Amino acid sequence: MDKRWLKLRDAARYSSIGINRLVELAEAGAVKGFQDPDDKRRPWVFDRHSIDRYREGQAAEADVQQRALNILNS
């Protein structure tokens, strides 16, 4: 997927995050997402770059946790 702005289902597929969780993350400000004001149905759209940053942060956190476990188990 090369589009920057993704509809909810596309964002869920792209990120492997459930649709309800994506909306929660957007409402909490963890990812950039909003209900499209230009569409009468007001579907959610998400910024792919913010999803990438969120996932990269998760990967970095997991790496730190693994290194800490390695130190404890040494």
What would a concise description of this structure say?
The chain is α+β, with helices and mostly antiparallel strands and 74 residues long. 58% of the residues lie in helices and 14% in strands. The protein has one domain (5-72).
- In helices, the fraction of residues equals 55-70%
Major β-sheet strand ordering: 1-3-2
Q: Estimate the strand proportion.
A: 5-15%
How many H/I helical runs? 3
Oligomer: single chain
The gyration radius over C-alpha positions equals 15 Å
Report the mean per-residue pLDDT as an integer: 91
Largest sheet: 3 strands, antiparallel
Please give a structural write-up:
- The protein has one domain (5-72).
- Helices cover 58% and strands 14% of the residues.
- The chain has three helices and three strands; from the N terminus they run βααββα.
- The protein has a three-stranded antiparallel β-sheet with strand order 1-3-2.
- The chain is elongated and about 60 Å long.
